[in-house]
């Protein structure tokens, strides 16, 4: 994660490392927890999962709507927006 981080983040971590005593595994672990890299990686993974789940959910809705309606629901939404804007 450190290697993939932008250079500014790497520099900040190096500066932060100078303020930590890292003689034991617990101290090293506490340092990496303090950098926030692990939390950022977890948030990124959660965000990606949520986005993928949402895309799958919307895809299922669209497929279901198309099979029930016989036409594209996006066409209905575009028509609705056009009428709301009085652009017809």
Summarize the structure.
This protein is mainly alpha-helical and 88 residues long. It is built from 4 helices and no strands.
Tell me what you see in this structure:
- This protein has 88 residues and is mainly α.
- The protein is built from four helices and no strands.
- The longest helix has 33 residues, at 37-69.
- The termini are far apart.
Stretches where pLDDT is under 50 for at least 5 consecutive residues are none
Principal-axis shape: elongated
- Secondary-structure class: mainly alpha
Percent helix range: over 70%
Overall pLDDT metric: 80
Q: What's the helix-strand series? A: HHHH
DSSP strand content: under 5%
The total strand number stands at 0
Main sheet?
A: none
Distance between the termini: 53 Å
| Total helical elements | 4
Radius of gyration: 24 Å
Features:
88 residues; mainly alpha; elongated
Topology (elements, then pairings):
Blueprint: H1 7-17, H2 25-35, H3 37-69, H4 73-84
